[in-house]
Amino acid sequence: MTIALIAWHVFKDGARSRTMVSLVGFAFALFGVSLLLGQLSAGQDLKIIKDIGLSVIELSGVLMAVLLGVGLVAKEIERRSIYALLARPIRRADFIVGKYLGLVATLAMNVAAMTVALYLVLAYINASSPEAVRASWEAPALDPAIVLASLLVVAELAVLTAVALFFSTFSSSVLWSTLFSLGVYIAGSMSTQLRDLAAAVGSRGAGTFAQVIGVVLPAFSAFDVKGQVVHGLAVPLSYVGMTIGYAAVYSIAVVLAAALVFSRRNFE
Amino acid sequence: MTPRGESGPARFWRGAAGVVVTLALMLASAAILRARDRRMPLATSSDRWLYVRSPAVGRLLAMNYSAVVADSYWLRTIQHFGGDRITHRDDAPFALLSPLLDLTTALDPKFTVAYRFGAIFLSEPPPGGPGRPDQAIALLERGLRVSPNRWQYAQDIAFVHLWHENPQAAAMWFRRAGAMPGAPNWLDPVAATVMMSGGDRRAARSWLEDMQANASEEWIRTIAERRISQLTALDQIDQLQAMVPLFQERMHRNPTSWEDFQAAGLLRGLPTDPSGAPYVYFPASGRVRLQPDSPLAPLPDLPGSRR
Amino acid sequence: MTSSATPAVSVDGLTKDFLTGFWRPRPKRALDGVTFAVPPGEVFGLLGPNGAGKTTTLKLLMDLLRPTSGRAELFGVNAQTHAARQRVGFVPEQPYFYDHLSADELVQYFAGLSGLGGADRRAKAARALDRTGISAADRRRPLRQFSKGMMQRVGLAQAVVHEPDLIVLDEPMSGLDPIGRRDVREMILALRDEGRTILFSSHILSDAEQLCSRVGILARGRLVRLGALAELTQHASLEAVFMEAVQ
């Protein structure tokens, strides 16, 4: 019950948050721009709009996850609103889990909204393109696979939020938590390349290091199906399912760690 | 999670248990991902698409961050090369290798590793690579234009030529490399050896004599001297070998020893190599060779020589 | 004054060290073996100069800090469990809450976190806001528009909404104008008259004189005086006792 209350509070807070509104607005603006770009690049406009659209959804989601995720705890500590809250008869772990679920729900809603906006843009293109052009597309304009891509973005954001929340629990500085979280995102996005690099180097130490990194660092590149979706290649549901499974297990691990750290914290 | 009034050891163990569980979950999640990739690798991976191909555009987009963008393109290059090697694709393997290397080196013209390893990747013959020594050499030559005194690039060009059986070009590039400031002094002898293996004994000899006269290091002069002696031996063997058909013509039988040659008037005295060891004639095969324990043995294996 | 009932607050040998210094953290003792008890129904003042450890003590009671050694109990329940806070309301020093919420939303949110639901929650929230003098119009405005005095009232409202048996206040009068201070004083007395226990910290002696039945004086982390106000000030003013105690 506590968890639900806190989650609901975060969800309402997120809807009103200035950061969020501006990011979503930015996303919509970018969709408009991509429409314009599409006009300029004969024949490739559908692909470009899908590319840009999916990338914008992901990028704004990433920024929201980090900026809001870090604020979940660090901002409360910085502003000292956490004292009155923790004085209630609630477990510290419930606080962390509630915050986490609330933010993930917020992000999911935003991704859904932006996906709908993207579909609207694609519907417009579909309606305004002649039959011959439509036949040449690798994938239909209103491709249901885009929903799969967005679903994986939500899973990715769930992991990133957990990471941001984790840093937020032990670093009272909003700035440092933000930087660490973005750093983890960048490193995690390159995780496959880092692994390959270690393999290319060939020394055993590098190989072990790469393996350790591969387990501990979240593999954000594993959620990327933009290429497949845009080119109409198959994305099996079981693939999506297993990826979501990965996100769930990893997020549980990190939220657990965050709850552990937070439950031991002294608030001076 | 709030500890129920415990202190010290109990809290510590709960914390340790928490860490263990966290790590176990992370391992489990990594296992899920590995299972996914094993069972259903996606149709194609995203590294086949390169939006930016023009190095000029790449430099523009990278702004102040060319070096780090170059690094990321380099990582992609490695991933592309390694990936295509492992997956043995049939359609356009290694297609992005040259563009990626062009971009990497355009963004960071001093990126030595990209030039050198890139050339190795490019010249690797199929199926392990694209087999494009021409692109490899072009890449290295671009590197030399930016850094004219990087002897390593010249040496690498020489090796590409060597692997693709063009010893004259290889030898020339070894010489060029050796002439650059800071180049190690073993490049010259290597060049000479390569030249010899190209069958061009005269060019090799003249260069070796030059080396013997002018090299600053004792051991280089020694090597040059030995190589010259070996060349002489090769020439001598050729001359001796030429006597065999003459003998057969004159005497209507095969020669069996040096004495036969002497008796036929073709030879005066026992033939010895420049180190003083006598040559050996093998009547069964009709071949002249160095004595096995001659200091000049083994002779370099040169095309067009009959030993 | 002894009572056979379970004390509302019971502190035994409470010690807290903080690690200071970045490169070689050394422990700095903020509280040293503090022991006292507050029987139910009493108004207890924890006095001391700035930095004496008053806020530290209160935070230890509210499980915002963990003690280095010693024990704290609220109504006989270990203060380090969340259940201990079921019957407690806390007003932190210079409270700050979520800007974008209204007073009404905040008090209801916190009431929910104390387990109240539905109509009961709404009714009690309204009552708490009435008690603390926040008008019907004000309670719908976002908190970011509130002055310091009004924020203090909101702090009180969230502390009493679930009708706790113990209310803990950290420097409740700090930064308030005389009207605000009077209102807080009256509220504390009203709560006492309802049979609730009050524990507050302050460095303003006149407030203690007007409200407390017992006081404890902290100096440099140690409890140097403890007892009924009347007894302590038998031969000297509270100020004199205070000055002498903290030297």
Question: Quick gist of this model?
Answer:
Chain B is mainly alpha-helical and 307 residues long.
Overview of the molecule:
- The complex is a heterotrimer of chains A (268), B (307) and C (247).
- Chain A has one domain (2-263).
- Chain A is built from 12 helices and no strands.
- Chain A has helices spanning 2-16, 18-40, 45-79, 82-86, 92-128, 131-136, 145-170, 174-189, 191-201, 204-216, 226-230, 237-263.
- The model of chain A has no long low-confidence stretch (mean pLDDT 85).
- Chain B has a domain at 49-166.
- Chain B is 62% helix and 2% strand.
- Chain B is built from 12 helices and 2 strands; from the N terminus they run ααααααααααααββ.
- In chain B, helix 4 (97-107) runs antiparallel to helix 5.
- Chain C has 247 residues and is α/β, with parallel strands linked by helices.
- Chain C contains 8 helices and 10 strands.
- Chain C has helices at residues 54-61, 103-113, 118-131, 148-160, 178-193, 205-211, 229-232, 238-246, and strands at 9-20, 26-38, 43-47, 69-74, 77-78, 88-91, 166-170, 197-202, 214-219, 222-228.
- The model of chain C has no long low-confidence stretch (mean pLDDT 90).
The rounded Rg of chain B comes to 31 Å
Category by helix and strand content of chain A: mainly alpha
- Find the count of extended strands of chain A (DSSP E, 2+ residues): 0
Low-confidence stretches of chain B: 1-5
Quaternary organisation: heterotrimer
Which percent band covers the strand fraction of chain B? Answer: under 5%
Largest sheet of chain B: 2 strands, antiparallel
Total helical segments of chain A: 12
* Rg over CA atoms of chain A: 20 Å
Q: What is the arithmetic mean of pLDDT of chain A?
A: 85
